[in-house]
Design brief:
CATH topology of chain B: Non-ribosomal Peptide Synthetase Peptidyl Carrier Protein, Chain A
Strand content of chain B: under 5%
Oligomer: heterodimer
CATH superfamily of chain B: ACP-like
Number of domains of chain A: 3
CATH superfamily of the largest domain in chain A: Chloramphenicol acetyltransferase-like domain
Strand content of chain A: 25-35%
Number of strands of chain B: 0
Largest sheet of chain B: none
Number of domains of chain B: 1
Shape of chain B: globular
Shape of chain A: globular
Largest sheet of chain A: 7 strands, mixed
Radius of gyration of chain B: 11 Å
Largest interface: A-B, 20 and 19 residues
Chain lengths: 401, 81
Amino acid sequence: MSDFTMPSLGADMESGKLVEWLVKPGDTVSKGDIVAVVETHKGAIDVEIFEEATVSELCAGEGETVKVGGLLARLQTTGDASPPSAPPMPEATATEAESRAPKKSGPEAAAPRPAFQIERTGRKKVSPAARRLAAELGIDPESLTGTGIDGSVSFADVELARAGAPTPKAAAAPVRRGGFDPAEMRRAIAAAMTRSKREIPHYYLSNTVDMTASLGWLSRYNEGRPPTERMLAATLLLKATALALRKAPQLNGFWQDDAFRPAEGIHIGWAISLRGGGLVSPAIHDVDTLALPELMARLRDLVARARSGGLRSSELMDATITVTSLGERGADSVTGVIYPPQVAIIGFGRIRERPWVADGAVQPRQLIDVSLAADHRASDGHAGGRLLSTIETLLLEPDEL
Amino acid sequence: MTDDEIRKLVFDILGGIAPEADFDLLDEDEELREALDIDSMDFLNFITGLHQATGVDIPENDYARLSTLTDIVAYLRQKGA
């Protein structure tokens, strides 16, 4: 027997709403199967399972909001299958959530919570986030009209009440698949970034890299290929970063419990801005092992799913570093804020033609600014500098990517 | 295709990329990527959509000729769409 619990889909998640079960009692599931859809501030996420098992009981109902670590279902594990390897994030997040919640005694902090029931008082359901905000504002959440899909009072309802706007009628919008609540997302970004700036002693480095060779390679590659098979410069940037990280293990992993834990693979969280505001940085797994066309296909698929719904739980749980690229209409450079518990973020500015000295002469070249923000608890500037220098070397020799 | 058919096709594809856009407010000579906040991935998807619907091969070197709605209509007409 084992418990299937609400996963932590990022350091900034406290709870999620179970929107839909994709399995029923008696179904057998295997590692990687999508078993449920959970609505978070990042939109509707496909939640995967990490073990071979038979579903014995669904404990959370559709529409219920469940805290991270709260019981979703009970599973009968098949044979003596190895226990599910716990992804690194949940413990850290549980601790974080705990530290922000009214402080109780220490020991239970890291332990998974017992089965969670949606908070009820009287007959009105109120989501935890909504209850907290309401308490801050001195509003009685039970006096509000709930517009959550199960009629519960949501964070947005409390926001509306604060704004003094009349609460919409209870019939209310069904959850749009992939839709996310901008107010919730803003709040989550605020929490994660505040924690980052409060706890992580960042150091910053940057280099300017000549992209002329890489762009030349890319344009030769794309020539004669239909649009479906063309690659973007982002693919080269990602691959160069991943290969360089192989030699910089101190920058790829997590800071947890006052110690650095290097990650097993190189799973790069790719920062994707969402229309309507906010951003999400789902992981592309094992980027260093992917051939460029495969990496491009993954990137394309990931961006599409980030914007329209259908990101998978594993993609939100196990990024080992983040890369943010501002793209061709962005600013010239960016200095990132680390997404805890990761220890580094790499930023690429816009590629732009600028003067550059080569062979003793000033020449127009396609240049990009590459930056690193890293956690000084886990690494020093020397290691960071070497990483940037390796990325540069790789981008100068695109054939090697 | 007529100019209007091309415009409709462009709006259909862009509607999938920028669902919140109000094309009635779009100036035909406005830079599309700027007006609709389209990044390079969105633009590649847009080109892919045009290619799949019209069969016109749109090489990368021609991207600069597709910056406004007027440009796009003229380009696709010239390429026989």
